[in-house]
Amino acid sequence: MTGKLLTINGLTKAYPGVIANDDVSFQITNGEVHALLGENGAGKSTLVKMIYGLVKPDAGSMTLNDAAYAPNEPRAARSAGVAMVFQHFSLFEALNVAENIALGMENPPAMGQLSAKISQVSGDYGLPLDPHRLVGDLSAGERQRVEIIRCLLQDPKLLIMDEPTSVLTPQEVDILFATLKLLREQGTSILYISHKLEEIRTLCDEATVLRGGKNVGTCIPRETSASAMAEMMVGTRLSPPQKAYKKLEKTVLQLNGLNLSPASPFGTSLKDITLEIRAGEILGIGGVAGNGQDELLGALSGEAKSAPQSVQMDGQNLGHLSPNARRKLGLLAAPEERLGHAAAPDMTLTENAMLTAAERENLQSNGFLNWTRSRSFAEKVIARFDVRTPGPENAARSLSGGNLQKFVIGREILQNPRVLVVNQPTWGVDASAAAAIRQALLDLAADGAAVLVISQDLDELMEITDRFAALNEGRLSAPVATSDLTVEKIGLMLGGAHGMEVAHDTVVHP
Amino acid sequence: MDLSAINPIVLIASLMVASTPILLAAIGELVVEKSGVLNLGVEGMMITGAICGFAMAVETGSPALGFIGAALGGAALSLIFAFLTQVLLSNQVATGLALTLFGLGFSALIGQSYIGVKPPTSATLILGLDAMVFVGIGIIAVTWWVLKYTRVGLILRAVGENHDAAHALGYKVVLIRTAAIAFGGACAGLGGAYLSLIRVPQWTEGMTSGAGWIALAIVVFASWKPWRVLLGAYLFGGITVLQLNLQAAGVKIPVEYLSMSPYLITIIVLVIMSADRTRTALNAPAMLGRSFHASN
Fold first, then answer.
1. Most confident stretch, A2-6, A142-146, B71-75, B240-244
2. Is A94 touching B (CB cutoff 8 A)?
3. B157–A92 CB contact, under 8 Å
4. What are phi and psi of A288, to 5 degrees?
5. Residue A157: what are its φ and ψ, rounded to 5°?
6. Measuring CA to CA, which residue among B70, B77, B7, B19 is closest to residue B44?
7. Which CATH class is domain B3-283?
8. Domain limits of chain A?
9. What InterPro entries does the record point to (chain A) (predicted)?
10. Is the pLDDT of residue A509 over 50?
11. Cβ A103–B162 below 8 Å, yes or no?
12. Residue B293 CB coordination number (10 Å)
């Protein structure tokens, strides 16, 4: 358990206008799980990309096992024993598991042998996987297994994991941790990137905290409280969102046996979804990505049309109406993908404000657009939601993820919706922006709107929702009051761990 | 009307000859599209190959050297496309259309002194079929084998499926795509030369007359599968030859309807093929037509 594996010395990387990493130094010892903590934009991704050879540092050096280490491409990093599991999976949907794994190896054996080896390694580590299945048909947890096994087949000395649990159910997280602990026992070091503090406290031996590209300190996670680590990460104290007392009124939105087939080949069909939301209520819908979240948002926003009576608002049939007709009646939606779905990347904020608010904010008359009013509406959103941008004439693409997210959510909230549907409202958003967005959703519900929050972040759902339902393979469970729930119960509602419980018992301890 | 004048064996042989140009161009374009690039300049590369091959064969007196020249000419033109779209990141659709227009004009310029010239005749093997017919089938077989069973093919498919992931794994996306584009250009050039050296055989301006566009349609018809390219090309060639035979046999349908029938049937088949939207999307390379720019 002793001996330095990787030493990072003064790594610096600057991009035009921003210093992503500023003189970062730390060490990883053999057989430890080392956490890299930080907010979005703190420079974690840039740092690991330098370790993995995807980005060249401007200054600084690294040593691996007492030898100078300066990979100029991932291939060099892999042959030096460094492997990486990406946050956004670097997989190919139309290829099968074995082909995906072969692509990540330097000298893959013939396909037949490789398949046998995959089955063997996946059995050894309790991560069952069929080498011949198409990756597009796998769940998020199974896709991650593909990435992990791809790394394990190369016997890495250092395994880098970038936010590995963000797409997993709690049970899948347990299984992943069991695998990682097994690897640690075998002497593999793991660099574990996350901003989930409780996870780091249960798993990691040491933590390095980045803020604004600088190393602001290290700590032993087991001996440090989560709130102390959060303060190191953010630099200030965060106040949790406040739930106001509210009284629930009559049902506003109803889904009656909604069925919908997907628009894309790897999409999920919605099966017999029934729910109702009352005014003043926040209903949370949890579930692992790819279980019908995008399709549900589409069915509600009007992008996908369904039978007229399957979507009802105030007793009126909406299923056959277009998005604009639904907006007019007060059913608004903010989809997950900020760039390209919620906002047009190359259009200005004024133009983006026009795109969804034209109907309700009277930004048009007789087909003519009133840009002055659209601009002042955009300015209102920017001011009210603290969107950091030079002005409404900037392109949506130029905003950071958190700021654009505040803009697209704020744009819908300020239109005074009867019902607001949001998908992953704080995905990839830093902690302070996330807190602001959650507070805004709570305020909106307190003012009497019905809010439907689709999210994969269970902590978020526990924090702000009144009732919770789980979406699993296109089916929706019956909603349960959030106050009666624990994270374990939610995990079971999410459909268990996709058949992973069996594997859990067969983990081999060599 | 005398249908007995149509000899089935001659019909099949002439079908194979008629479909070889589009078969060659289509298998090249299939490889290009598998790598995630949409090159709409097939017509331009074909006609450039047609004149390059024709000039080379006339000057050297050797049809084989002519075909080599055609492949080089087509590949050279496609490298302009590769430079514009892969290095300068220009729009693939617009650049491809420009390549077609450029190729048509450029070939007319080179071809000024070759109008009315007779090319050297190629040797025939059996049933009046020349070697290129079998070379075309051979290219299809090799392409199928490479795409399905080799690492090069796997990397090519991966680049077309998700270029960001391929880049993250350390594959050189731009280099791989450039190689695919050059292969596509060479195949289109061979197809063009087959028209000017064997099928017609002489040089006239704009002699490809839409064959490049048919080749593009056949790639979609084939759902990006090599053997189906053969099927699609023979289907199209078969209808072309059949309508010529029907005209000769004096069928009492206006000639215009018969000549438009291959194109009409192509459109109908494409509509039927793409009726199931999800299945078409499943076969198409996911990155088709999207520019790649390494973001770090």
1. B71-75
2. yes
3. yes
4. -75, 145
5. -90, -30
6. B77
7. mainly alpha
8. 4-238, 251-340+417-493
9. AAA+_ATPase, ABC_carbohydrate_import_ATPase, ABC_transporter-like_ATP-bd, ABC_transporter-like_CS, P-loop_NTPase
10. no
11. no
12. 12
Rounded to a whole number of angstroms, the distance from the CA of B167 to the nearest CA of chain A is 9
Cα separation of A270 and A476, whole Å? 9
Of B169, B143, B161, whose CA–CA distance to A83 is shortest?
A: B169
- Given a cut of 90, whether residue A390 has pLDDT beyond it is no
Taking residues A307-326, report their average pLDDT: 89
The residue-averaged pLDDT of B115-122 equals 84
Nearest CA of chain A to the CA of B96: how many Å?
Answer: 24
Quote the pLDDT of residue B222: 86
Residue-wise pLDDT for A44-89, tens only, equals 888 888 898 888 888 888 888 888 888 888 888 888 889 888 766 6
Instruction: Tell me the residue type at A56.
Output: K
- Measure in Å the smallest separation between the Cα of B66 and chain A Cα atoms: 39
Whether B113 shows a pLDDT value over 80: the answer reads yes
Residue ranges in B61-129 assigned as alpha helix (H): 63-82, 92-110
B189-207 pLDDT tens trace: 999 999 999 988 899 998 9
A274 close to A255: Cβ distance less than 8 angstroms: yes
Hey, where are the domains in chain B? 3-283
Contact call for B170 and A78, based on CB within 8 A: yes
Contacts of A244 (CB under 8 A, 6+ apart): A442, A443, A446
- A99 CB neighbours in chain B (<8 A) are 154, 158
Question: How much is the average pLDDT of A153-168?
Answer: 82
pLDDT tens-digit series, residues B145-162: 999 999 999 999 999 998
Size of interface A-B (CB pairs under 8 A): 59
In sequence order, the 6+-apart residues with CB closer than 8 A to the CB of A268 are A262, A290, A291, A292, A295, A473, A474
Count each helix (H run) and each strand (E run) in chain A, helices first.
Answer: 17, 23
Non-local (6+) Cβ contacts of A98 within 8 A are A111, A114, A115, A118, A131, A132
What's the rounded Cα separation, in Å, for the pair A219 and B208? 72
Neighbouring CB atoms inside 10 A of B138's CB total 12
Question: Which pLDDT tens digit goes with each residue over A286-303?
Answer: 887 778 888 899 899 888
Distance CA B236, CA A240 (A): 68
* Averaged pLDDT, A309-323: 89
Query: Mean pLDDT across chain B, nearest whole number?
Result: 88
Same fold? A4-238, A251-340+417-493: yes
| Secondary structure E strands in A346-407 | 364-365, 368-369
Residue B295, chain A, CB below 8 Å: the answer is no
Q: How many Å apart are CA A168 and CA A478, to the nearest integer?
A: 21
**pLDDT of the residue at B239:** 84
| CB proximity A345 to B under 8 Å | no
Q: Which of B148, B161, B280, B283 to mutate to test the interface with A (most CBs of A within 10 A)?
A: B161
Put simply, the answer to whether B161 touches A95 (Cβ < 8 Å) is yes
Contact B165 A94 (CB under 8 A): no
Look up residue A82 and give its two tokens. Answer: 């460094």
Q: Pick one of 3.30.420.40, 3.10.580.10, 3.30.460.80, 3.40.50.300 as the CATH number of A4-238.
A: 3.40.50.300
Of B277, B286, B296, the CB nearest to A54: B296
C-alpha closest to that of A147 among A190, A90, A92: A90
Residue A496 has a pLDDT of 46
For the domain bounded by A251-340+417-493, which CATH number is listed?
3.40.50.300
The tens digit of pLDDT for each residue in A210-261 reads 888 888 888 888 888 877 887 787 776 656 666 655 566 788 898 888 888 8
Residues 6+ apart with CB under 8 A from A110: none
**Which pairing describes strands A331-334 and A475-476: parallel, antiparallel, or unpaired?**
unpaired
Closest CA to A275 of A419, A392, A406, A92: A419
